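// run 5 | inverse folding | seed 20
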């Protein structure tokens, strides 16, 4: 972590008081404290990750509080008008511009092996098959020459993975991902869902995708959810699934230095305007099947457009902090699967990927998911009891405040701050106790053990 100058530290903590608000301890009632590495899974092949790498990643996910993992697998259509959905196992056969071109179809044996790794380590699995046109096109624009024949082929594809999910114990299966051009075909979809339920006993979802942004407009301001999913004739089959997945990519910041408070306010307004009506119409809980913020400048302004650029790990952390604040206690929200926990743990020196490994955002997940930093409040409570003169319990707010990368409390009676860095999980002090110097005093793990947290 970069060491801040004393002047910058003082200014930063003034900003903390001015712009941040107390937040709860962790998410409440979420089914899915999930993670993924993208769809299709960007780093799952027949040979990667290595067993030792996957073991390390799973252990770190558990430390972060992850309890579900999303695994994606792709089949392909030769063209947008094709009536056939088929696997491609040979990378050389995949068009270089296809959206699934990163990976060919993963074999059933490999898929079941990876599913077993997660489940034996106490992490449930969400299997998310997808169809990728084998060309420069998006799955949401497919236009088969005969929809009934296409659904026959597609049903074979989905029931294949329904049987795989049943025998491997995967706890949830998506029956569709971003197939926007098909969503008015209610009878076809209901028949497919019935076929899946006849061979699979787990939870079933449909991932709407293509919502809350318009991927083909430069400004990404069009909200496809309104056009595609609130129309009375569209998506009636969603009442037959257990969960509705949403891809969350709207702008929640107006500038590169937006505060957590602004991001929170913007995200809450979008949720109220566009997500609540979906819940009210179908009566199903919603989760984010896709959500990601790269650790770069302006990623919260447009997560799809700004995936590379100037490194800004704080913006990534702040964006996720805002999302947690908005959705942590919504009774209709079931959780999320951010493309943040790759299957190989690595230190991203460039700082430009969606990965949160070794970044402040990882600590944000630890706190909200009930992982390593979830006990920060307990530690601060102990400090107040043990050192009441230094940390009188008349601190501002009832929980914790956040300004990347610190979770903290401020005590106006003593003009002291105590914080935990979500970057390196160390405890920091600032104020009269340190002569105005931002001072590291030890590891969070050691202090938490002393405090009995």
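// decoded
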């Amino acid at each position: 972590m970069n060491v801040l100058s004393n002047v910058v530290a003082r200014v930063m903590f003034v900003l903390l008081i001015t712009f941040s608000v107390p937040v709860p301890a962790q998410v409440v009632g979420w089914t899915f404290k999930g993670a993924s590495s993208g769809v299709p899974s960007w780093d799952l092949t027949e040979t990667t990750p290595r067993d030792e790498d996957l073991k390390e990643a799973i252990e770190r996910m558990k430390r972060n509080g992850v309890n579900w993992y999303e695994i994606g697998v792709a089949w392909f259509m030769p063209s947008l008008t094709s009536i056939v959905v088929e696997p491609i196992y040979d990378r050389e056969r995949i068009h270089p511009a296809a959206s699934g071109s990163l990976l060919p179809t993963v074999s059933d044996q490999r898929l079941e092996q990876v599913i077993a790794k997660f489940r034996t380590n106490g992490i449930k699995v969400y299997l998310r098959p997808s169809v990728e046109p084998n060309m420069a096109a998006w799955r949401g624009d497919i236009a088969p020459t005969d929809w009934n024949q296409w659904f026959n082929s597609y049903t074979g594809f989905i029931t294949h993975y329904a049987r795989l999910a049943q025998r491997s114990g995967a706890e949830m299966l998506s029956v569709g991902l971003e197939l926007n051009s098909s969503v008015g075909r209610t009878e076809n979809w209901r028949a497919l869902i019935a076929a899946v339920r006849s061979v699979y006993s787990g939870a079933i979802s449909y991932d709407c995708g293509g919502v809350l942004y318009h991927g083909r407009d430069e400004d990404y301001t069009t909200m496809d959810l309104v056009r595609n999913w609130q129309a009375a004739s569209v998506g009636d089959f969603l009442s037959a699934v257990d969960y509705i997945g949403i891809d969350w990519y709207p702008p929640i910041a107006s500038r590169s230095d937006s505060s957590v408070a602004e991001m929170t306010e913007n995200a809450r307004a979008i949720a109220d305007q566009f997500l609540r009506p979906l819940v009210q119409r179908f009566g199903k809980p919603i989760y984010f099947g896709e959500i990601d913020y790269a650790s770069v400048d302006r990623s919260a302004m447009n997560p799809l457009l700004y995936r590379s650029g100037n490194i800004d790990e704080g913006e990534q952390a702040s964006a996720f902090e805002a999302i947690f604040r908005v959705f942590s206690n919504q009774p209709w929200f079931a959780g999320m699967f951010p493309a943040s926990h790759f299957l190989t743990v690595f230190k991203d020196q460039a700082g430009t990927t969606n990965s949160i490994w070794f970044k402040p955002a990882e600590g944000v997940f630890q706190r909200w998911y009930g992982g390593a930093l979830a006990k920060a409040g307990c530690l601060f409570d102990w400090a107040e009891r043990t050192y009441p003169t230094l940390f009188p319990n008349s601190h501002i707010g009832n929980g914790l405040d956040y300004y990347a990368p610190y979770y903290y409390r401020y005590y106006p009676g003593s003009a002291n701050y105590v914080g935990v860095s979500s970057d390196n999980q160390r405890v920091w002090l600032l104020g009269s106790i340190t002569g105005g110097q931002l001072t590291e005093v030890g590891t969070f793990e050691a202090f938490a053990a002393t405090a009995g947290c």
